[in-house]
Amino acid sequence: MGALTLLITGAAGYVGRHSVAAARARGHAVIAVLRDASAAPESWRDDAGITVIAGDLTDCPALPAACASADVVLHLAASLSGDATRQARDTLQATRSLLAALPDGTRLVHMSSMAVYDMAHADPGAMITESSALLDAGARADAYATNKAAQERLVSDTAKTRGHGVTILRPGAVFGPDRLWNAHLGLALGPVLLRLAGRGEIPLCHISTCTGALIKAAEHPATGPINVLDEDLPTRQRYLANLAGTPPLVLPLNWRWVMPLARLSATVLPRHRLPGLLRPEVLRARFLPLCYDNSRMRETLGLRQAKSFEALMHEAQG
C-alpha cells in the first residue's frame, strides 16, 4: 500500500498524538484536526507531512474540504469525562458534524470502545467477542459507555445510507507512558486502594496495539467491528504488582459486597449524582470477572503482541 493522506480527529489527545506519530512513521501524510492549535506538539511544526486544522468539530468550516482531500478518515474524537451533556456534545454532536462533512463513499476508521458491550447480562467468566450483546439505546450505563454506544450506532447507520466503507475498532483500556491508571483497578482513597476484584482479565490495550490497529485498518480496509486488545491480559492483582506508585495499602474487597449499597443508593439519590462505583450497572461492568477475545484483530489486521505485559509496563514507567 502506497502513502495515504489520513485525516485524524482528536489528534491532540493521547491516542491521537501517538496515531499521528505512527502514521508518519509509515510514510502517510496527516491532516490533524484538533480543537486548539496550541495543543499541537512542537515536533509537528517542522514536519511538512502534517497539516493542522484547528477548530471544534461541531463548528469547523474547514472540515468538509479537509475530508474531501483525505484518503481515509480516522475518527478518534470523543469525550472521556465530564457530565452527560458535555459528553453528548463532544462525542455525539461532534460525530454528526463529521459525518455530515464526509463525501459519500469515504473510507472511515472509527475508534469505538469495549465499553459498548452490555455487561448487565454477561455471565461471570464469559468470553467477550465481537458478537457479544451491545448496549441498546435504553440501557443503563455510565455516560461514557452510553455515548460511545450511541456514537457507534450513528456511524454504522450513516455508513449504510451513504456508502462509507467503515471499520469499527473497539479498544480496551489504553495504557502506555503517562497513562497507567484505569477504572478497572479499583478505588484509590489516599494511601488506600480498594481492589474490588481479583479474578478476571483487565481488557488492556497498549498504545502501540491501539495505534497499530488504527493505521493497519486505514491501510487495509476491513468491515465490521474488531476488538483491539493485547494478548497478554493481566488480572488486577498482576497489574498492581507491576505498577509503581500503587497505594501502600491494598485492601481486597469483593465487588459483590458493595452491590447492596449501590442498589440502595440508587433508590435514594438520582443516578446522575452517584459516583460510578455506587451505580450497580457501572460496578458490574468494571469488575465482573470476564475474558476477552482478540482473534479477529490478529486474523484481520495481522497484529501480534511482541512483548509481555511486564515488559510493556517496565518500558512505560522507565
Layout of helices and strands, plus pairs?
Layout: E1 5-9, H1 14-25, E2 29-34, E3 50-54, H2 63-68, E4 72-75, H3 84-101, E5 107-111, E6 127-128, H4 143-162, E7 165-171, E8 173-175, E9 187-189, E10 192-195, E11 204-206, H5 207-219, E12 224-228, H6 236-241, E13 249-252, H7 255-268, H8 280-287, E14 291-292, H9 295-301, H10 309-316
Parallel strand pairs: 1-2, 1-4, 2-3, 4-5, 5-7, 6-14, 7-12, 8-11, 10-13
Antiparallel strand pairs: 9-10
Helix pairs in contact: 1-5, 3-4, 7-8
InterPro entries: Epimerase_deHydtase (IPR001509), NAD(P)-bd_dom_sf (IPR036291), NAD(P)-dependent_oxidoreduct (IPR051783)
Pfam family, one: Epimerase
GO molecular function, one term: aldehyde dehydrogenase (NAD+) activity
